[in-house]
Amino acid sequence: MKIKNQTEITISSISYDMENRVLSLKNGEQKLSNKEDRLLRLMIENQNKVLERDNILVETLGDKNFFNRRLLEVYIEKFIKFFKEDENIEIERIKGIGFKFSIKK
């Protein structure tokens, strides 16, 4: 999904205001940091594809050092919690490779 010129998108039952970096969930809103925003955009643009961890790290956090690897895990866990209320959205860990952001339907 291309999101370059959009200001708001809907992902299943969740909407995302990209200008203000606000996710609207069933149980409230969540403001995202710049790095979380970059990660979410990357996942949306590559939905239903496996994203390699190293590529995610370079594109969203700048490099592949240990601290950024841990930070990526924190962000992924955060998104898993945000999206768990919607059964059509799944973030799957692909062991030794990376992650897959899937939207069913």
Keywords:
105 residues, alpha+beta, Arc Repressor Mutant, subunit A, three-stranded antiparallel β-sheet, 3 helices, 7 strands, 37% helix
Give an account of the 3D structure.
- This protein is an alpha+beta fold and 105 residues long.
- It is built from three helices and seven strands; from the N terminus they run ββββαβααββ.
- The protein has helices spanning 34-45, 53-61, 66-83, and strands at 8-11, 14-17, 22-25, 28-31, 50-52, 89-94, 98-103.
- The strands form two sheets. It has a four-stranded antiparallel sheet, with no helix packed on it. It has a three-stranded antiparallel sheet with strand order 5-7-6.
- The longest helix has 18 residues, at 66-83.
- The two termini are 15 Å apart.
- The relative contact order is 0.19.
Short characterization:
Helix content is 37%, strand content 30%. The chain has 105 residues and is of the alpha+beta class.
- Overall pLDDT level: 91
Instruction: Summarize the biggest pleated sheet.
Output: 4 strands, antiparallel
Total E-strand runs: 7
In the sheet with the most strands, the strands line up as 1-2-3-4
Domains, number? 1
Poorly predicted ranges (pLDDT <50, ≥5 residues)?
A: none
The CATH class name reads Mainly Alpha
The CATH superfamily bears the name Winged helix-like DNA-binding domain superfamily/Winged helix DNA-binding domain
Q: How many distinct helices?
A: 3
Measure the end-to-end span. 15 Å
N-to-C SSE string, H for helix and E for strand: EEEEHEHHEE
The fold-level CATH name is Arc Repressor Mutant, subunit A
What's the alpha carbon Rg, rounded to whole Å?
Answer: 13 Å
